[in-house]
Amino acid sequence: MFNHIPVLLNETIDGLKIEKNKIYIDLTLGGGGHAMEVLNNLKFTGKLIAFDQDEESIKYCKKKFENYKNIILINENFENFDRVLKELNIKKVDGIYADLGVSSVQFDTKERGFSYNQDFFLDMRMDKRNTLTAYDIVNTFSEIDIYHIIKNNSNEIFAKNIAKHIVNYRKNKKIETSFELVDIIKESIPAKIREKKGHPAKKTFQALRIEVNRELEILENTLNKMVNALNDKARLCIISFHSLEDIIVKEKFKQFENPCTCPKNYPCICGKKSLGKIITRKAITPSIDEINTNRRSKSAKLRIFERQYNL
Q1: Going by fewer Cβ within 10 Å, which terminus of the chain is more open, N or C?
Q2: Using alpha carbons only, what angle is made at residue 305 by residues 297 and 302, rounded to the nearest 5 degrees?
Q3: Is the pTM of this model over 0.85?
């Protein structure tokens, strides 16, 4: 269980500039690969606060880290990290990192319904306490809403036709499993296109997963809280796996570095001050060796921002 290989591990650890007696936050604990390396760089006076909304991840890591006294495990979505810090009486931290990808375990466990390569109930919830599933979306949402979800969350060019086929199919039968949905998607895409590209259901499954778990919304809303929770010279490291996430991180980092909204070539009168500097002008990507070892790392991008108060 949780045989998940941490992506861009060394690059993330180097980017954090870990100090042995400081406080760090892992926003997406998963199998604890990044967390283990952070803990190995800390002394007992340092602390790691690790979040994951997946109860299975927390259970696994409780056992994995049972001999570590300086890690606090929190079974919540990272959008609530600021409230948890307040409860722990922690005002600022010395580094935050997140791996936004779905863990290999979630993909490979067919009961979770994430994969288009395994046939099971259309669930896709990272947090089983949430009520909305992919099944609910494809069987109860309107055609226009399904279209917008697929289009906005994946840029699928056949989103309109896929939404139409989904709604037509469900008139006679509920769409219950992964393979049922895959067949509907295949029928919605011209054969010539299906033959040329990768799996035809990849983008639609991505779009549904993002919607079920509010991934883009949470990322967009939480990045500001992340940078405001950092001490001076502390760093924020975010690993994304598709362009929609990466664009949000890239644009937010730009805003943090240069928040001025005044017209170019005019003196600044808005009074907005820089929050720090972008460390990675170009995203860090996996080496060829890492990609060969872990194919799922291929699309990963790491961006790093450093909080600075005295600019």
Answers
A1: C
A2: 5
A3: yes
